[in-house]
Amino acid sequence: MKPLRFWLLSLGFDLWWTLAVWGRERLILPLLVSSLLMLALTPSRRRLWVVVACMLGIMMDSLWCVLGLFEFTHSTSVPPWMMALWLGFSAWWLWLLGHVQVSGYWLIPLGAVSGPVAYYVGMRFGAMHLLASPSYVWLLLAAGWALFLPLISLPVLFDKTRRRSIR
User: Fold this and answer.
1) Where are the domains of the chain?
2) Packing angle, helices 107-124 and 3-23, rounded to 10
3) pLDDT tens, residue by residue, 119-161
4) If DSSP codes are grouped into helix, strand and coil, which group holds residue 132?
5) pLDDT tens per residue, range 107-120
6) DSSP assignment of 43-73
7) What is the dihedral angle through the alpha carbons of 93, 15, 76, 108, rounded to the nearest 10 degrees?
8) Euclidean distance between CA atoms 119 and 32, whole angstroms
9) Is 71 in a helix, a strand, or coil?
10) What average pLDDT does the chain have?
């Protein structure tokens, strides 16, 4: 993939994510349609794992809510806009991993930093608010994402390793 196309698609996802978090319920229909489109454009061999990664992300957010770390604005559980966001993120992330060379070990610090940053930005947009001590919330989110990101990445990393060994 050409670098310009890669960066444009990544920037496009960041813009989509920002609009999704900012617009939330107001943009649920376009958010849902675009998430389903991302799933439809996912290669068939990876589609199931996109859905699994999405479900794991929703379960992780549900756990954070049940533990009383935070809650989403106007919702007692994971709202539909967040579920659509998880689907879009899962499709994008697994696509991205298929096009970049990254060691599985780097996914741990990447998850530990990028996960909490995304929630912090979401909080600044008013999409959620903390219920527990900020240091406690950010520490648990960092630990959760340090495990989550490598876990959902395993099928793509294994597939890339297998394909290299076949050549």
Assistant:
1) 3-166
2) 40
3) 999 999 999 999 999 999 999 999 999 999 999 999 888 876 6
4) coil
5) 999 999 999 999 99
6) -HHHHHHHHHHHHHHHHHHHHHHHTTSEEET
7) 30
8) 20
9) strand
10) 92
Query: What SS3 class is residue 125?
Result: coil
Least Cα distance to 83 among 97, 72, 94, 98 occurs for 72
The type of residue at 10 is S
Task: Name the burial class of residue 19, with classes exposed (0-12), middle (13-18) and buried (19+) by CB atoms within 10 angstroms of its CB.
Answer: middle
User: Alpha-carbon distance 28 to 74, whole Å?
Assistant: 14
Rounded distance between C-alpha atoms, residue 61 and residue 144, angstroms: 10
Q: Which two tokens stand for residue 130?
A: 């903390």
Stated as kind and residue range, the H or E segment containing 72 is strand 70-72
Residue whose structure tokens are 């698609």: 9
34-38 contact pairs (CB < 8 A, 24+): 34/88, 35/84, 35/85, 35/87, 35/88, 35/91, 36/87, 38/87, 38/88, 38/91, 38/92
This prediction has a pTM of 0.91
Distance, C-alpha 124 to centroid of its chain: 18
**What's the Rg (C-alpha) of the chain?**
16
Alpha-carbon distance 34 to 28, whole Å? Answer: 10
CB 74 within 8 A of CB 25: yes
